[in-house]
Amino acid sequence: MQAISRPDDTTAGPSVIWLAIGFLLAGLGTVLLGPILPSVSLHWHLTDSQSGPLFFAKFLGSFIGGISVPRKLRLGILGGMALACVGFGAFGLCGGVLTGSLALFVAGIGLGQIIASTNILAGHRYRAHTGSALASLNFFWSLGAVGTGVIVAALMPRFGLRNLLLYFAAAFVVTGIGGGLDWRLRSQHSAQLSEALLNEPQNPSLPIEALVTFALLLFFYGGLETCLTGWLTTYTLRYSDKQLLGGQSATILMWTALTVGRGLSSIVLRYFKESTVQRLGLVFSFLLIGALTTTHHSATLSLYCILIGLTLAPFFPATFGLLMHRSPTPREAGFILAVSGLGAAAFPWLMGFVSTHSGSLRVAMAVPMALALLLLAVSFWKPGNKAPGSAMVSREIA
Question: Distance (Å, rounded) from C-alpha 209 to C-alpha 214?
Fold first, then answer.
């Protein structure tokens, strides 16, 4: 009975179409606060400093959601949908920063549960081409993130902020119900499990060196990606000879390239090892970030942003695929995912600190360049395997 419950807990859940829809909503929810913040600040009469707790509450909730992934991953996905619905719906009804922060904290927990549980479930379910499957799913997260501003700009004038948030909340509950019904219907026709899964032994926890290695990879990568997407608009305004779209063209191009790159990565990762794609992407990212600091022409800067986005796109699915080959527990994988949010919070702040004290944002670009080198160095670290006899995992990571 114990052997049956484990593969069911780690692979049972909504079909891939519902997972993709959920990830699309999670991408929208992750980025949503930025595009609606001017309207929120206007309605609630907030200063910039008073808006800060909203971002902090959402980040804190996402971190807690990531480290509290349940063993039954389908419950993490469905529960995350419910919490996101409650959080964003409540945020639409709030009238101040205190209640708004509490609502976003709940929404953040839901988003953290959805993102972590879906990635882990996909990693367990699609074992043959794990990195490719993760790249395909994360394409939908990136698609939601890059499309958030366009959706808000198109719908908020028509429906208003409150109705937009309520409709968005309703989309989560509809997706949760649809995914839950889908799993129930399919589970009635798939009672038999494969012999390989039935006979698979219960794996111990990850050794501490493996946990630290993957946590560092996601921590540094969260900082690298957010340093670039967070500061590129300001960089363009200061150093480009032309500022298209108010300086936001660079960020839009990078998000678009990340999204397209995730789709292309799903193909590349079917034919090349995750570790190879991961390291090549980091080498080119380091070189391109360095090249970015040498130009002030808008066309060249735009090209570099596109190329950087494409080279960074495979990193997360490749790295998380390598992690899933080691069969971490849901809590371990969720913790490693959540740590990326800490990097996303810490390193953009460090970049701003360096820029202020050096008097140059070009100099501060040394932070993402250093992160790319650190990631490359850590990627060559080969922590011990979970259990004796796991030579296949060791070969894949190498």
Answer: 9
Determine the Cα–Cα distance for residues 131 and 266; give it in Å rounded to an integer. 7
Q: Helix (H) and strand (E) counts for the chain?
A: 17, 0
Q: What is the mean pLDDT of the chain?
A: 84
3-state secondary structure 324-382: HCCCCCHHHHHHHHHHHHHHHHHHHHHHHHHHHHHCCHHHHCHHHHHHHHHHHHHHCCC
Q: Which CATH number fits domain 2-198: 3.40.50.150, 3.10.290.10, 2.60.40.1120, 1.20.1250.20?
A: 1.20.1250.20
Q: Is the pLDDT of residue 21 over 50?
A: yes
Each domain of the chain, given as residue ranges in start order, spans 2-198, 208-397
At residue 396, what are phi and psi to the nearest 5 degrees? -65, -40
Distance CA 120, CA 324 (A): 7
Please tell me the distance from the alpha carbon of residue 364 to that of residue 77, in angstroms, as a whole number: 38
Query: Could you give the CA distance from residue 143 to residue 135 in angstroms, rounded to a whole number?
Result: 12
Taking residues 183-207, report their average pLDDT. 56
Tens-digit pLDDT profile for residues 210-236: 999 999 999 999 999 988 887 887 788
CATH 2.10.260.10 is the classification of domain 208-397: no
Which tokens in the block code for residue 148? 């958030």
Count of CB atoms within 10 A of residue 140's CB?
22
The whole-number average pLDDT for the span 273-285 is 94
pLDDT tens profile 93-121: 998 889 999 999 999 999 999 999 999 98
Helix (H) or strand (E) holding 153: helix 130-187
DSSP string across 183-243: HHHHHTT-----HHHHTPPPP-PPPHHHHHHHHHHHHHHHHHHHHHHHHHHHHHHHH-S--
Q: Once rounded to an integer, what is the mean pLDDT over residues 285-312?
A: 91
Rounded CA gap, 46 and 49, in Å?
Answer: 8
Q: Which residue has the tokens 């519902």?
A: 18
Radius of gyration of the chain (CA): 21
| Residues ≥6 apart with Cβ < 8 Å to 125 | 10, 11, 13, 133
